[in-house]
Amino acid sequence: MIEAVIFDVDGTLVDSVNLHAKAWQVAFEKFDKEVSFEAIRRQIGKGADQLLPVFFSLTNAPCYP
């Protein structure tokens, strides 16, 4: 029987915003896109569908096979 459940809505128990922003920065670097931590940090809270277009557009997105 389950005796307890811990559910963390972002930032309630652990302030993970900076880690989240750093993870995006590392992911962008994998696609040769350098974006400052501060620029990404300001976008945290958006879903990826809203965050990615801020830094990538269809005309300048890198293409990989």
Distance between the termini: 48 Å
The class by helix and strand makeup works out as mainly alpha
Count the helices. How many? Answer: 3
Could you name the ranges where pLDDT drops below 50 across 5 or more consecutive residues?
none
Give a count of the beta strands, DSSP E runs of length 2 or more: 0
Taken as a percent bin, the fraction of beta residues is under 5%
> What's the multimeric state?
single chain
What coarse outline follows from CA principal-axis ratios? elongated
Please state the CA-atom Rg, rounded to the nearest Å. Answer: 15 Å
Helix content: 40-55%
Sequence of secondary-structure elements: HHH
**Average pLDDT figure:** 86
* Main beta sheet strand tally, sense and closure: none
Structure characteristics:
single chain; 65 residues; mainly alpha; 3 helices; 0% strand; elongated
Task: Report on this structure.
- The protein is an all-alpha fold and 65 residues long.
- It has a domain at 17-55.
- Helix content is 45%, strand content 0%.
- Helix 1 crosses helix 2.
- It is elongated and about 55 Å long.
Question: What's a concise summary of this model?
Answer:
With 65 residues, the chain is mostly helical. It has 3 helices and no strands.
Topology record:
Layout (H helix, E strand, L loop, with lengths): L16 H14 L6 H7 L4 H8 L10
Helix pairs in contact: 1-2
